[in-house]
Write a structure and sequence with these properties.
284 residues, alpha/beta
Amino acid sequence: MHIDAHQHFWIYDQREYGWIDDSMAVLRRDFLPADLKPELERNGFQGCVVVQARQTLEETHWLLELVEQAPFILGVVGWVDLRSPRVWFELESFAGESKLVGIRHIVQSEPDERFLLQPDFLRGIAMLEEFDLTYDILIYTRHLPAAAEFVARFTRQRFVLNHMAKPPIKGGAPDAWARGIQALAAFPNVYCKVSGLVTEADWQEWKPGHLRPYLDVAFECFGPSRLMIGSDWPVCTVATSYARVMDLVKDYLGKYTTNEREAVLGGNAAAFWRLKRPAKQARD
């Protein structure tokens, strides 16, 4: 089973999605399961994991409702306020939702570069294991040192790094990024999504060769047993098509064994989140 490990849905509202500026005008519309399904089918993917884009409980509930309409949504990475004194009760309220597989906080937008190490946030993270929930780490390169300190505190918690920590493809300090990735990958409970690269490159001029050095680092550090392909659809469409972003990784996998390719294309995601095939596929 091939699984897109990272994509989003939304009903567009300018007040809720202020980060979609004029350069991203193509994203100023609704993106729903009916829009994604043909992309999955054309590109040989049987399922996906949808990830939160707004930090509201309302959105988490809405994404779980979408699962009922679209069985190809195999899991939801939602949001709860991990800093709240009521976080245990909020997590407990979702305990019957088997498709809620993980939690994410948009740490990259927090002004405190060591946000991950705030005591109230750490207290919330410590509760995820009890509810069998993973945590998605969404950060920039500058947050990698704090992220390594963060995951070192939770040896049994399952973590997955989003978008390879958004490497500085258009410029910056690739060596610092590579060192940070190596340090984070040293923890065996941390996985990584091969996603989001095209939007870190020059949207109009990028070529696969611009991204391969970063893929090299991710594969060297995490290995094909802890990497999972993700489209970051619809955000990726500001730079390229769904097919092209997925073919970037598929083509790179050409030098790996069949088992290794299948792991990155879906096996690792299925194991990490303990995903089940859609009912129809299970019968087939």
